[in-house]
Design brief:
By secondary structure, the protein is α+β, with helices and mostly antiparallel strands. The chain contains nine helices and eight strands. A hairpin with a 2-residue loop joins strand 4 and strand 5.
Length: about 190
Amino acid sequence: MSFLSHLQSIIPVSERLQTELSRISKKRMVEKGQYLLRSGERCNDIWFVEQGLLRGFYFHEEREITNWMAIDGEFGTSFYSFVTRTPSTESIVAIEHTQVVQIGHDALQTLYVDFPETERIGRLLTESYYIKLDGRLLGIQFKTAKERYDLLLATNPLLVQRAPLGYIASYLGITQETLSRIRAQH
């Protein structure tokens, strides 16, 4: 899905805003394994995945913990760092060759001032992000490993097909062995 098509699915986007988005955004190809952000850097951009797969992760006790994955038609950023303008505790890497549309923090803030509809888009996207985050938190706290996997499979089957099992297991808060057992039961 293209960046503009995605925004148009949220609210109508004026021709003037479309022109400005074309001017300030940057379409780029990110190679598999290439980092968009490393822990300790300030996140200055938000990325829309037109095609491909990004992963946000933390290091904890010398292990990588997957925090989120963004697939075709989704946004990815180090949200806390992007909003607070502080160094990120997470890293962002491309899992596949990925085409993204990149918008910088300052450009986005200018859009919010110059184009009030962008604030509405931003609010709706933030609400959606929060709902996913809340569901993920409740799932980790109250659902079994199988229930978490079944929910991910039902809501995002393409992610389950395309992301490596280790990343999916980490995202679900389970071991790869547990995930393999669950998948064997399907």
